[in-house]
What we know:
This protein is an alpha+beta fold. Helices cover 27% and strands 26% of the residues.
Amino acid sequence: MKLAILSRAPxxxxxxxxRAAAEQRGHDVRVLNTLRFAIDLVGPEPDLQYRGRPxxxxxxxxxxxxNSITYFGTAVxxxxxxxxxxxxxxxxxxxxxxxxxxxxxxxxxxNIGMPATAFVRNRADxxxxxxxxxxxxxxxxxxxxxxxxxxxxxxEVKVAEAIIETLHSTxxxxxxxxxxxxxRGRDIRALVVGDRVVAAMRRVASGDEFRSxxxxxxxxxxVELSPEYEQAAVRSAQIMxxxxxxxxxxxxxxxxxxxxxxxxxxxxxxxxxxxxDVAGAIIDYIGGQVAFPEIDVRQRLTVSTGYGxxxxxxxxxxxxxxxxxxxxxxxxxxxxxxxxxRGTNVxxxxxxxxxxxxxxxxxxFGKLEEMRSMVPERRRRRAKVRRLxxxxxxxxx
Length: 397
Ligand SMILES: Nc1ncnc2c1ncn2[C@@H]1O[C@H](COP(=O)(O)OP(=O)(O)O)[C@@H](O)[C@H]1O
Ligand SMILES: [Mg+2]
């Protein structure tokens, strides 16, 4: 294949290793400076120029977009996507992961363990937010920090409030996060490629530092991940829309707590710690995908007006319990069941003979009009029960 590595650091360890791995496998590989592209929306089809010239044909790109150029970098990646050039990490995926709040919001509905986190703007809401995540000591984080810069541990509520107010006054947005003391300055970095973890390491903070970033003096060691940690890492990367990702997790008392998902993970630390060929695994994965790429279903499906994807409950409006999929009448109503969710199991392309059970959920593609009547009422949020303050009830006379 012909592969472009998008990077502004051709001499960096990671870029060098990726280039070498691609060459070793007989691929044609170039390192292109992300900032030298011009997005060309002039002609009938989306196009790109590089260094003022039309870009030649590429089969795949591997974006390595630094934090300082997120906007332009993701625009370039998005343009490649529009040109049907394969990328393991989409512009959306990179944007999702880059902002710690956005990442937390997306992950939070998927049953992934994360440190308790809150986000507020008004001064009056700061103290309640600190209490909400468990009180002091509390971690304060800039939304787009890296390498541990912008991650602060505040020992007391008063100090935390002062720090947050100061940052707010300089127009910085910050996350308020529970301090996971039991992880004791250690964290896990899992390198996800496709749907598996290809390497993992533990980082240990030096001295009394609580941040384990290598740039903060942390040391690294290889680690064998339990299935629980492996699953948390792979699912997080998948939910974010990243096929190449470095997932950072704290070791909480109840299991993995995902802190962040990096879309351009560095390779030096992890290859050194584990002695594994991570660069090779990434290139192999891209090679495989170029031959048979996945499609962004959401983008493609909405092209057919009136059709879409919906989740139907078997015990919902339609009385389907005990019927087979063939007898359900769905097919006649122009509804195709893509996957059947039963408990924690997922049955892709369920057969006609499958008997439907009360708790089944079906992911369907079809006429929205037809499906609308079958969609159950909006799930109500479970109200948090708060005790009312004891007050004498006035007597009615
Ligand atoms: N809630 C937390 N509790 C305990 N330690 C934390 C917490 N959040 C971050 N850390 C430590 O600080 C480091 C940096 O935090 P992280 O959110 O990954 O920011 P960065 O993007 O700068 O690496 C982590 O690797 C971890 O060691
Ligand atoms: Mg980190």
